[in-house]
Structure formats: structure tokens, C-alpha cells
From TrEMBL:
Belongs to the ABC transporter superfamily. Siderophore-Fe(3+) uptake transporter (SIUT) (TC 3.A.1.21) family. Pfam families: ABC_membrane, ABC_tran. This is ABC transporter ATP-binding protein. One of its GO terms (molecular function) is ATP binding. One of its GO terms (cellular component) is plasma membrane. It comes from Jiangella aurantiaca. Its main location: membrane. Keywords: ATP-binding, Cell inner membrane, Cell membrane, Membrane, Nucleotide-binding, Transmembrane, Transmembrane helix, Transport. Residues 365-599 form the ABC transporter domain. PANTHER family: ATP-BINDING CASSETTE SUB-FAMILY B (PTHR24221), HAEMOLYSIN SECRETION ATP-BINDING PROTEIN (PTHR24221:SF646). SUPFAM superfamilies: ABC transporter transmembrane region, P-loop containing nucleoside triphosphate hydrolases. The lineage of its organism: Bacteria, Bacillati, Actinomycetota, Actinomycetes, Jiangellales. It is a multi-pass membrane protein. Residues 50-329 form the ABC transmembrane type-1 domain.
Length: 617
């Protein structure tokens, strides 16, 4: 079953290696600081970003106004004006400071609003894509790495768009405006400052290659560390049970050290760039003021103009410096964007048909010469054909790895067969709308996934519109009602993450109730009674029989209890059907089946265990 496949560690490990080779950004992978594609991610928040730009321009405007007012006031003081002549200037300067404070506050609010809108849009887009990609993609990726992209990656993009990109135009225009003004005041000083500003603007471009490498490495270490920590948290019980936590802890410590080094290298380059820019900025201002003093001495510049140079030269560089600071914190977004694009570009394993066929009228299922391989050249299902009548119960048995779960994954269209096809009611699955197909199939899986929420929430997954009496009927039929009633808050009791506060059997009963509520014409039972104790197994089996009545049922069976109730049993070996028949027929003529029973791969049911019948055959 899909859940089983998803949590099978050997497969996950293999997929992890594959995904790491393919998904870790290498040096130079980082995207350019501004690319059309990156900017397209801002769709829906551009209005907010434009407002951020205006705010930045307005803030620069207050600095310029303040510079002019102060220069004028100081000039008047030098020329012996009365205090009353500069009182208006002082009031204006204070007012500009106050206006700027309000503007900065509004700019911050705008940035937060931009970020919030961007994050919610982008995450919705990524989750929609993840659902479209389905289990096939999630199996091939590390949960932690996907989480790093969807959670941390999106946070980084927030900084990029709400701080850096939103302020970019404002800062550039503000600096350009001030420089143009200073060019008019004095072309020599203006050109000197322009050269300094261009050098500052060019610094990140020069440092980009160096920083891209560091940033990619930093980000890939981050994703890896996140994935490994999540792995350890999820596998805590296993690590403790095998006394393997110390070894795993050492591995994590080593990875943390790698991450530390990645961070230091990244910050070192970033600081180098910041330092270079600070030097250029201070050097430029000092040169401009020095030149201004010389020009004043030569009589080419008035006192007011020199004061303007003194006060505004700093302002010409300030927006650029602010932008650099924003760029510094937004830079990891460029690597994070690589992960986001990778997810958005991923091709789903299956596609919805353009013009879906009408819903099938019958619940018969036919596999026609189906061949499917996860890895080229290693088919998990080979040229397999079987027709299952509407309402028939067919059990699939076989050794581990025989291909049982793969058949179910193909039926649910998590994957498409490379050869042959599957029909439902005579219609090829590839011609059916995927949601329509999945609505027609209810699954009771071995590893039941319960979501964090109340028992009721988990039951409603089967039928969101079900009322309390339907929930209770289903729970009763699944043998779950009694234990649910005994829970502290009955149906409103919150089950922990993955239903951790319930026993395996209880979880499975909820899964059975959920499938009952879904009331789909096709039922997939994946060793549905495996977590149920012997006392309740017969009871649950009866509930399942009632559930299966009138439905086409595919049962992946490890127990004789399931098998004995099936209309037919299909014996699989290496992806092929080797025998088909009833339990009695197979016991009689199938050596493979007899071997399975003898090897106890098919465990005795509660009935056979207590009656002692059947298994010895
Ligand atoms: N996601 C996957 N990627 C690569 N190979 C896979 C994947 N899932 C299953 N396989 C391989 O396909 C073959 C059939 O696996 P499948 O899970 O269908 O067997 P199964 O009969 O259900 O086994 P079990 O009873 O142990 O669950 C096995 O060789 C298995 O290793």
C-alpha cells in the first residue's frame, strides 16, 4: 500500500541517496539575483511591493529634505542670522524626522503584509503541486528536504521579496535622484560620488560567484540537516530499541559541524562584501567632502553647497547600503528558490486526462498484461492479467516483494503501468479523472495514518458530510464505538500525531470505520486485520465481510482469515501470477501456496488458531 511503501526504510534510504545526488544544489547552481522567473513568483503581491518602493522613496525624500533644511539653517548661522530666522528650519527638520518615523513604521507594516501574502500564496502553490505529484514524488524525496523547501525556503523568499525586491527600485531611484542633484551642485563632486555609487552597486555582482557557491553549499547542508533531524525524531523508538542513538547522534554532530562550517564560510564572504562596500562608501564621502573644501577655497563652491555635499553625500549611499543589508539577508533566498523551482518543475508520475471519460457504471477491475518497474529493467509486476468481477473478493498473496502493494499503487494510479493497462468498469484508468477514480476506492491500510485532531475529524476524512449517527454506525460496524466512548472526550478526543495515543488495533478500527464511511464501490484491504488481537479479529473480519459485500474487494493478505473468505486467491511470485483458485483448490494443487502456508507466511486466523484447523495443510 502507498503508506507502507512510503515508510519502508530500505526504499526510503535508496530514494534518499538518489534524491540527494539529484537535488542538492551544487556550486554555481544559485540563480541570478534577479531573474524573470524569480520575479514571477511575486505574482499577487506586486501591489504591496510597489507600495514598499514608494515608502522607500518617501523615506529617502525626508532625508534629502532634512539635509537641505539643515544646510540652509547652518548657512544662516554662518552669515550671522537671528535665531528667529532659523526657527522655522528647526521645526521643519523635527517634522521631517517625525514623518520619517511614521514612514519607516508604515514601510515595515508593508513589508510584513507583502511577506504574509507572498508566503501564503507560495505555500498554497507548493502544496497544490505536492498533492499533484502525489506519493510517487514524496517517496523519492526526503520529507525533511521537502519541508525545508516549503517552510524555510518560503521564509527566505519572504525576506527577498518583502525587503530586498520591494525596496530595490526605491533605493536605486532615491540614490540616482540625490546624485543627479549633487551633479548639478558641482559636477566634479557629483561624478566622484557617482563613481563610488557605481562601485558599490558592482560589488555584489563581483562577489556573486563566490557567494553563490557558499550559499548553495549552506542551503544544501541546511536541507540535509533538517531532513536528518526529522528522520531521527521519527525513528526515535527504533534508535532506542536498537541502542543506536549514540551512533546516530555522532553522525548528526558531524553534520552539524559541516553546517557550522558552511554558515561561517557563507557569512565570511557576505561580511567581506559588506566591509568592501563600507570602505567604498566612507571613502567616497571623505573624497567628496575633501574636494568640496578645496572647491570652496577656490571659490568654486558656496558654503550652502558645501554643506549640501556634506549632508547629502551620505544620503546618496544610504539607500544602497540599506539595500545591501536587505540583499545580505535575502541572498539565501536565491538558493532556496532553486529548491522551490525544482518542486514546481517536477513532473507528476501520472496526469489527469484532458477530457475524462464518464464515470464507470460497474465496479469490475481488469489488469491486462500489466508490466511496471520502479527502476528500469527491474519489473515489480510482469505481464500480469486478471479480471475481478464486480462484487468479487480477491486476495493477493505471495512472499515479501512479490508485487502485491504495487498492484494497489497501480490501481490507485500513483503510477502508470509501462505496458498494458488497468480498466475499471471497462474504462481505462488513464481516461478517468483521478479524483473520480480515487473516490471510487476505499483503502484500509496496514499502517493507518491518523492525523493530529479528534477521532471525529479522522473519521470525517471518509465522508466530510457524515452526521454523528452515521459516524457511530460506522464505528460500531468497525468495532470501534466502544473504545471511542471510553476515551476521555469520546469522539472529540484528540489523537496525537499519527494517532500515537491509540493502540495499533484501535487505529486500524478507525481506519475501517473511515472506509465504511467512504462507501466506495471498490475496497482495498491491506492486511487490514494485522493489528487486531485474536479476540477481536473474528469480529472485525465479520465487519469487513459486511463491508466487502457487494463491493469489489482486493485484499492483500498475510493471514488465512482473509484468504479463506476470498472468492479467489491469487498467488504472486516476482510480479507474476503463478496460481489462482480458492483456498481449498490451491491447497490441493499449488505447491507454492502450500509452501506459503507451511512457512506460515500466511498466518493462522484467530478462528484457525483457536480451532486448530486448516493451517497444518
Ligand atoms: N518505491 C519503490 N521504489 C523502488 N522499488 C520499489 C518501490 N516499491 C516497491 N519496490 C520494489 O518492487 C517490488 C515489489 O514490491 P511490493 O511492495 O509491491 O511487494 P509486496 O508483495 O507488497 O511486498 P510486502 O509484502 O513486503 O509489502 C519489490 O522488489 C520492491 O523492492
Amino acid at each position: 500500500m502507498n503508506m507502507r511503501i512510503a515508510f519502508d526504510s530500505r526504499r526510503v534510504a535508496a530514494a534518499t541517496r538518489e534524491s540527494e545526488a539529484g537535488r542538492t544544489a551544487g556550486p554555481g547552481d544559485a540563480v541570478a539575483p534577479v531573474t524573470p522567473r524569480l520575479l514571477r513568483l511575486s505574482a499577487g503581491v506586486r501591489g504591496w511591493m510597489a507600495l514598499g518602493t514608494l515608502m522607500t522613496l518617501a523615506v529617502t525624500g525626508t532625508y534629502v529634505g532634512q539635509g537641505i533644511v539643515i544646510a540652509s539653517a547652518v548657512e544662516r548661522i554662518f552669515t550671522g542670522a537671528e535665531w528667529s530666522a532659523i526657527a522655522g528650519h528647526l521645526v521643519a527638520a523635527v517634522a521631517l524626522v517625525a514623518v520619517r518615523s511614521v514612514l519607516l513604521w508604515l514601510r515595515e507594516l508593508t513589508a510584513v503584509a507583502t511577506g504574509a501574502a507572498l508566503k501564503s500564496r507560495l505555500r498554497r502553490r507548493l502544496y497544490t503541486k505536492l498533492f499533484e505529484l502525489g506519493p510517487a514524488y514524496v517517496q523519492g524525496s526526503r520529507t525533511g528536504a521537502v519541508q525545508a523547501t516549503v517552510v524555510d525556503g518560503v521564509e527566505k523568499l519572504d525576506v527577498y521579496f518583502s525587503r530586498f525586491a520591494a525596496q530595490f527600485a526605491g533605493a536605486a531611484l532615491g540614490a540616482a535622484g540625490i546624485l543627479a542633484g549633487l551633479l548639478v551642485v558641482d559636477p566634479v563632486i557629483g561624478l566622484t560620488l557617482l563613481a563610488g555609487a557605481l562601485a558599490i552597486a558592482a560589488t555584489p555582482l563581483l562577489a556573486r560567484r563566490l557567494q553563490a557557491e557558499r550559499s548553495s553549499w549552506f542551503w544544501s547542508q541546511w536541507r540535509r540537516l533538517g531532513a536528518d533531524h526529522l528522520d531521527v525524531l521519527q525513528g526515535m523508538t527504533t534508535l532506542k530499541a536498537f541502542d543506536a542513538s549514540a551512533g546516530r547522534g555522532r553522525e548528526l554532530a558531524r553534520e552539524s559541524w559541516d553546517f557550522y562550517r558552511a554558515s561561517i564560510r557563507f557569512v565570511a564572504v557576505a561580511n567581506l562584501r559588506t566591509g568592501a562596500m563600507g570602505l567604498l562608501s566612507s571613502g567616497g564621502i571623505a573624497l567628496a567632502v575633501g574636494l568640496g573644501a578645496v572647491r570652496l577655497a577656490q571659490g568654486a563652491l558656496g558654503v550652502f553647497d558645501l554643506l549640501l555635499v556634506l549632508l547629502l553625500a551620505r544620503e546618496a549611499f544610504r539607500p544602497l547600503e540599506e539595500l545591501q543589508k536587505a540583499y545580505h539577508s535575502a541572498y539565501p533566498a536565491l538558493s532556496a528558490a532553486a529548491g522551490v523551482f525544482e518542486l514546481l518543475d517536477a513532473e507528476p508520475a501520472v496526469h489527469d486526462p484532458r477530457e475524462p471519460a464518464p464515470a464507470p457504471r460497474s465496479g469490475s477491475v481488469t489488469f491486462e498484461n500489466v508490466t511496471f518497474a520502479y527502476t528500469p529493467g527491474r519489473p515489480a509486476v510482469r505481464n500480469l492479467s486478471i479480471h475481478i468481477d464486480e462484487g468479487e473478493t480477491v486476495a493477493f498473496v505471495g512472499r515479501s516483494g512479490a508485487g502485491k502493494s504495487t498492484l494497489v499503487a497501480l490501481l490507485l494510479r500513483f503510477f502508470d503501468a509501462q505496458d498494458g493497462g488497468i480498466t475499471l468498469g471497462g474504462i481505462d484508468l488513464r481516461h478517468l479523472a483521478i479524483p473520480e477514480l480515487r473516490r471510487r476506492i476505499a483503502v484500509v491500510a496496514q499502517a493507518t495514518y491518523l492525523f493530529h485532531g479528534s477521532v471525529r475529524d479522522n473519521l470525517l476524512v471518509g465522508d466530510p458530510g457524515a452526521d454523528q449517527s452515521r459516524l457511530e454506525d460506522a464505528a460500531r460496524a468497525a468495532g470501534a464505538h466502544q473504545f471511542i466512548q471510553r476515551l476521555p472526550h469520546g469522539y472529540d478526543t484528540v489523537v496525537g500525531e499519527r494517532g500515537a495515543t491509540l493502540s495499533g488495533g484501535e487505529r486500524q478500527r478507525i481506519a475501517i470505520a473511515r472506509a465504511l464511511l467512504k462507501d466506495a464501490p471498490i475496497l482495498v484491504l491491506d492486511e487490514a486485520t494485522s493489528s487486531i488481537d485474536a479476540k477481536n479479529e473474528a469480529e472485525i473480519q465479520q465487519a469487513l465481510d459486511r463491508l466487502a459485500a457487494g463491493r469489489t474487494t482486493l485484499a492483500i493478505a498475510h493471514r488465512l482469515s482473509t484468504v479463506q473468505h476470498a472468492d479467489r486467491i491469487v498467488l504472486l511470485d516476482h510480479g507474476r501470477i503463478t496460481d489462482v483458485g480458492t483456498h481449498a483448490e490451491l491447497l490441493e494443487h499449488s505447491t507454492g501456496y502450500a509452501r506459503l502456508v507451511a512457512a506460515s507466511t500466511l498466518e493462522p486466523s484467530a478462528e484457525t488458531r483457536t480451532s486448530g484447523s486448516g493451517l497444518s495443510a
